[in-house]
Specification:
This protein is an all-alpha fold. Helix content is about 70%, strand content about 0%.
Length: about 325
């Protein structure tokens, strides 16, 4: 019984990371079509609609009425809400090298958070496995060259992303009274409300509400990315991630995070014919960011639609989030 639980948990974690890694193929072509907030907003709205339909049809069972919601809200606060803010701002304000270094620390910090909060001592095999993953990412990053942005805002945002994902993993483990479907539904509901409002605020600031609302209809690549991330990453992958943590724990689940990076690299090379350039795909994509977005040293040299066309200048943290020049 224990072996079956470990096997199914491992397969869930593996499937989750493969889905995240393949998202590269679907998000690569959307960088020039919309902002990250537009993609995140639409992604979670579509995901919530699909999940709600499954619940209404009886395909997925959830029972939240009359139960304490704080454990679920605590999970949703750290992921998707805080994690994607940190990741989006961090990647845009720093170089790809720096973001790769920070995001490669997720498994290690998850291991530490589990040991401190859950009092679960990691095994030697888990420590070795996560160390190998970290060293592998670091070696790849160093091999393609080190660059520095010296962006305090970017570093702080990336630290927020790493800490948020580690705490998300811990709080999923603590929410053991809820099923994977119930945790996933709470995450989707929070993500749709949070990023939907941010996307609307961004579009309103640019006078582009109509462009945002019609984007999936007018842009095929964006529509495909939203459908994949909404159903594949937000519903299926979130469910698999939560199920994996419930079955095998935070430590073992975290050791699979490097798989998404490998899948992204192979997907770009085999399906898109791209060189193995880590600058576009370093770090485990939690399904939200647009790969290959410009780093801080070249972002001012290119116009980035958001969805209204804009040229970024020196910005505060809310300007970065909303894309306001």
């Amino acid at each position: 019984m224990k072996e079956n639980r470990a096997l199914s948990g491992g397969l869930c974690a593996l499937g989750c990371e493969v889905l995240y890694g393949l998202s590269y193929l679907f998000t690569k072509r959307t960088a020039d079509a919309a902002s990250a907030l537009a993609l995140l907003g639409w992604r979670f709205i579509v995901a919530l609609a699909v999940m709600s339909l499954c619940v209404a049809l009886g395909l997925v069972r959830i029972r939240l009425r009359g139960r304490r919601l704080w454990p679920l809200l605590r999970v949703a606060l750290f992921c998707p809400c805080l994690y994607f803010i940190g990741e989006t701002v961090g990647i845009r304000e720093t170089t790809v090298t720096e973001s790769g270094v920070f995001l490669a620390c997720v498994p290690a910090l998850s291991l530490l958070a589990s040991a401190v909060i859950l009092k679960k001592k990691p095994t030697r095999r888990q420590v070795v496995g996560i160390s190998i993953t970290f060293l592998g990412v670091m070696t790849t990053v160093i091999a393609v060259g080190i660059s520095s942005s010296l962006s305090p805002m970017g570093y702080a945002a990336l630290m927020l992303a790493v800490a948020a994902y580690a705490l998300y993993s811990v709080f999923v483990d603590l929410a053991s009274d809820y099923t994977g479907a119930e945790i996933t539904y709470a995450m989707l509901l929070s993500g749709a409300a949070f990023y939907g409002l941010l996307a609307l605020g961004e579009a309103a600031a640019h006078g582009a509400l109509t462009a945002l609302l019609t984007l999936p209809v007018k842009n095929g690549a964006f529509r495909t990315a939203v459908l994949y991330q909404g159903v594949g990453c937000s519903v299926a992958a979130f469910f698999l991630s939560n199920a994996a943590i419930a079955k095998i724990g935070v430590n073992k689940t975290s050791s699979f995070i490097g798989v998404s990076t490998i899948v992204s690299i192979l997907a770009g090379a085999l399906a898109l014919g791209e060189p193995l350039h880590i600058g576009q795909i370093v770090g485990a994509d939690r399904g939200g960011r647009i790969h290959g977005e410009p780093s801080v040293e070249n972002i001012k040299a290119k116009k980035i639609p958001c969805p209204a066309e804009r040229v970024p200048t020196e910005r505060g943290i809310f300007d970065v989030l909303w894309g306001i020049s």
